[in-house]
């Protein structure tokens, strides 16, 4: 009886996902004709310059990506026994918090390499080899690794390791979130270019006059959360800093449809903003 009930639960879940994907396919098809033409893009870019919005020339190349799904249960709790010399607890949302019993000294000049080596040891971090260092979201003393999925990375806090190194260069602990059982839901599809995403950002009034686009990058964000699983979609994420402010706000554009997604705003110090701006990788 219990097995049959489980079968029905999985069947209903897959039906819901299929309905959602059909809806998104129709929406994507209907919005394709509404995507800005090359002339419109050029005009809007000129308008942004006239509004004193500063940014480096965005890439005009289209990319590709998937709809992907993953479990809302991180599964970290059942693997904590593999961790050594740590005090850990797992919150109700699946996020793991660890405090090292014996803090480790980190050479900040080689922090990326040393912390990468640290997380790849199974006794230190669960599934650590599935994460990569993220220059843009890291700052002095706060180092971020993001989870690799499909052909990109998850750029939200659902798939992230954040490591704390104190002022004495001691690695004291970390937090980890993880998306388990990741799978692609459809064949790979074309994503809009960085330039078109930037135009959409402006047309949705998410960037004000006299502001600066600090950086832009393509990754995965959660689009839909169901009871047991979530759907992720390729997303253009832009970090925007307003005039006379050290705060950087993150804005998201669906890279399939060009639609605006719910924004997550983070406040940073001037030094952190500078770190984001000068980091290597996908910064313009």
Automatic annotation (TrEMBL):
Start and end residues of each stretch annotated as Disordered: 262-284
Domain of life: Bacteria
Swiss-Prot/TrEMBL keywords: Membrane, Transmembrane, Transmembrane helix
Record's signal peptide: none
Keyword Membrane belongs to the record: yes
Domain Regulatory protein YycH-like: 36-256
Low complexity bias locations: 263-284
InterPro entries attached to this UniProt entry: YycI-like (IPR018604)
Positions of transmembrane segments: 7-26
Keyword Cytoplasm appears in the UniProt entry: no
Pfam families in alphabetical order: YycI (PF09648)
Protein name as it appears in the record: Two-component system regulatory protein YycI
């Amino acid at each position: 009886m219990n097995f049959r009930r489980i079968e029905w639960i999985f069947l209903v879940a897959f039906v819901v996902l299929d309905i959602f994907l059909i809806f998104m396919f129709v929406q994507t098809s209907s919005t394709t004709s509404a995507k800005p033409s090359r002339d419109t893009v050029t005009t809007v870019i000129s308008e942004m310059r006239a509004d004193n919005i500063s940014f480096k020339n965005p890439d005009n190349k289209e990319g590709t990506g998937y709809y992907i799904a993953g479990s809302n249960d991180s599964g970290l709790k059942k693997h904590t026994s593999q961790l050594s010399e740590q005090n850990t607890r797992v919150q109700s949302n699946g996020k793991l918090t660890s405090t090292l019993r014996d803090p480790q000294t980190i050479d900040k000049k080689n922090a990326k390499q040393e912390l990468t080596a640290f997380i790849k040891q199974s006794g230190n971090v669960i599934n650590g080899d599935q994460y990569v260092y993220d220059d843009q979201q890291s700052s002095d003393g706060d180092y971020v690794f993001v989870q690799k999925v499909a052909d990109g990375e998850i750029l939200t806090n659902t798939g992230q390791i954040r490591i704390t190194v104190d002022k004495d260069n001691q690695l004291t602990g970390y937090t980890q979130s993880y998306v388990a059982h990741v799978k692609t839901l459809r064949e790979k599809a074309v994503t809009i270019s960085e330039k078109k995403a930037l135009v959409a950002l402006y047309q949705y009034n998410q960037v004000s006059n006299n502001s600066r686009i600090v950086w832009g990058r393509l990754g995965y964000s959660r689009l839909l959360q169901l009871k047991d699983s979530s759907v992720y979609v390729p997303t253009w994420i832009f970090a925007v800093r307003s005039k006379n402010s050290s705060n950087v706000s993150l804005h998201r554009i669906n890279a399939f449809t060009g639609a605006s997604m719910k924004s997550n705003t983070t406040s940073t110090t001037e030094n952190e903003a500078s770190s984001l701006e000068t980091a290597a990788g996908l910064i313009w």
